[in-house]
Design a protein that fits this description.
This protein has 176 residues and is mainly beta. The protein has one domain: Porin (Beta Barrel), CATH 2.40.160.20. It contains one helix and eight strands. It has an eight-stranded antiparallel barrel with strand order 1-2-3-4-5-6-7-8. β4 and β5 form a beta hairpin. The longest helix is centred in the N-terminal third of the chain and has 14 residues. It is elongated.
C-alpha cells in the first residue's frame, strides 16, 4: 500500500497525457458535502476543483472526456464541538471519465473515477461512479451540481463507503 499513491499518480498522468488533443477545456470549483459510512463522524464539509477536456462524438450528438478532480473534506467527530485530534481530514485526486448529450444549456454527464485518497494517516484507492449536471448561463460560464458515491479501498480492511455532493461554478474555453 506504500506505493499506491505513486501508482495512482502515474495512472492519472498517463490518462491525461493520452488525451491531450482536445476541443474544449473545462474547469470548476465547488463547495462539497460528504458522508462516510462511519456513524462516529458528522457529515463533512469541503471543496473540490476540477480540470478536464471534452470533445464531441457520435456526429456531435454526444460529448465526453477525461479530467482530474481534487478534493478536501473535514469530518467532525460526533459529540465533539471543539477542534481536536479526533476529527478526520480527507484529501485526494482522481481521474474522471464522463459522457453525455451535447446540448447548449443543460449538460448532464455520467461516468466514473479512480484515484488516490489520504484519510488521516491511511492511503486509499478511491473508485466510484460520477453524475454531474451543468447549466450554462453563457457559452463559457455555468453552475454545476454533482453526486459521487465513493469506495475507499485499503489493504488492511479499513474500507469506507461514502457519498459526496457538490455545487459550484464551471467555466470552459477552446482547447489546445
Amino acid at each position: 500500500m506504500r506505493y499506491l499513491k505513486y501508482a495512482a499518480m502515474g495512472v492519472l498522468a498517463l490518462g491525461m497525457s493520452s488525451y491531450a488533443a482536445t476541443r474544449t477545456m473545462n474547469a470548476g470549483v465547488a463547495y462539497q458535502s460528504a458522508v462516510l459510512d462511519n456513524g462516529d463522524y458528522r457529515p463533512g464539509m469541503g471543496v473540490n476543483g476540477s480540470l478536464g477536456s471534452e470533445m464531441t462524438m457520435l456526429g456531435a450528438a454526444g460529448s465526453g472526456g477525461l479530467g482530474l478532480r481534487g478534493n478536501y473534506e473535514h469530518y467532525r467527530r460526533e459529540g465533539v464541538d471543539g477542534l481536536d485530534q479526533a476529527n478526520l481530514n480527507e484529501g485526494g485526486i482522481a481521474l474522471t471519465g464522463m459522457v453525455g448529450p451535447n446540448t447548449v444549456f443543460l449538460q448532464p454527464r455520467v461516468g466514473g473515477h479512480v484515484g488516490y485518497t489520504r484519510l488521516e494517516d491511511n492511503n486509499f484507492l478511491e473508485v466510484g461512479p460520477d453524475v454531474t449536471a451543468a447549466y450554462k448561463f453563457t457559452p463559457t460560464l455555468g453552475i454545476q451540481a454533482m453526486v459521487t458515491p465513493t469506495w475507499l479501498i485499503n489493504q488492511d480492511n479499513t474500507n469506507f463507503h461514502g457519498t459526496k455532493m457538490g455545487l459550484g461554478i464551471t467555466w470552459s474555453a477552446p482547447g489546445v
